[in-house]
Amino acid sequence: MARLTALLFSLVLVSGLTISQVVVAKTQLTEQFFQGALIVGKTAPENKVHLNGKAIKVSASGDYVLGFSRDEKNNSVLTIVSPKGEVEKRTLKPLKREYNIQRIEGIAKKIMNPNKKANIRVGEDNKKIKAARTIDSDLTAFAQGFIAPIEGTITGVYGSQRFYNGVPKWPHYGLDYAGNTGDPVKAPADGVVLMFVPDMFYSGGTMIIDHGHGVSSTFLHLSDAYVKVGDKVSKGQVVAAVGASGRATGPHLDWRINWFNVRLDPALVLKLKPLE
Ligand SMILES: [Zn+2]
């Protein structure tokens, strides 16, 4: 009888281990691992998470996040290690997307090459934006789902790209919404204002909001800001006004989402369902 009890006990132990190995990682995402997707995961808070060998932050409630770039072709390996040394590996294969490509011929040269002075300003603007996007804060707002910042019609999508005279231009990374100057822009999720510059060369009034773990929203071409750097904002709070500042053809809101310097698709981010 003692032997049988011991056998049963060890069986329970073995199956218990198997079960805990399965639940070490509970990574869920938008729908599938599309190029441009923000991928939110949840695990036991004491576990360590590595992405391609590099540690990524796990929150006190076990949330972590990563993202795939527009053209990501390589598989990513997610490794979750429990304090007991249990290891779970998941291979994340990016799903290829088709983007809207336009070819335009016969464009004047001066439009294609901004002058030296402008280039210096653009360089300074980009430095500020890049610095804001390296912040790896403990906020976990990214795990709570996002709302659209305005209700306008979508006039531009993520990933689209133009070729002028056969030369590829920078792809479009935002989601453009039609709007009028002064229309309220809401925070798509809770966060902290990381940057506001009223007059960047290309993007005009530019605001960056931190949602935690490297996830940020950027708003371009704003006409006004109602919050300042360091302010806490909550999902749905009006933070800025639509405008046509910088190099914009007319008033609209261009909303970007980043995971650090990886540019993600806001349309996919809007579909994210918070994990249980
Ligand atoms: Zn845009």
How is this structure best described in words?
Helices cover 17% and strands 36% of the residues. With 276 residues, it is of the alpha+beta class. It has two domains: 2-92, Sandwich (Immunoglobulin-like), CATH 2.60.40.10; 101-269, Glucose Permease (Domain IIA). The strands form five sheets. Strands 9, 12, 14, 15, 16, 18, 20 and 21 form an eight-stranded antiparallel sheet that branches. A hairpin with a 3-residue loop joins strand 14 (191-200) and strand 15 (204-212). The radius of gyration is 22 Å and the shape is globular. The structure holds zinc ion.
Summarize the structure in short.
By secondary structure, the protein is of the alpha+beta class. It contains four helices and 21 strands.
CATH superfamily annotation of the largest domain: Glucose Permease (Domain IIA)
Q: Globular, elongated, flat, extended or rod-shaped: what is the shape?
A: globular
Q: How many beta-strand runs? A: 21
Number of domains: 2
Which secondary-structure class do the elements indicate?
alpha+beta
Keywords:
276 residues, alpha+beta, Immunoglobulin-like, Glucose Permease (Domain IIA), 2 domains, eight-stranded antiparallel β-sheet, four-stranded antiparallel β-sheet, 4 helices, 21 strands, disordered N terminus, binds zinc ion
Task: Show the helix and strand layout.
Blueprint: H1 2-23, E1 25-27, E2 38-43, E3 48-51, E4 54-56, E5 63-67, E6 76-81, E7 87-92, E8 101-104, H2 109-112, H3 116-132, E9 154-156, E10 161-164, E11 167-168, E12 175-178, E13 184-186, E14 191-200, E15 204-212, E16 215-222, E17 224-225, E18 232-233, E19 238-241, E20 252-259, E21 262-264, H4 266-269
Bound molecules: zinc ion (ZN).
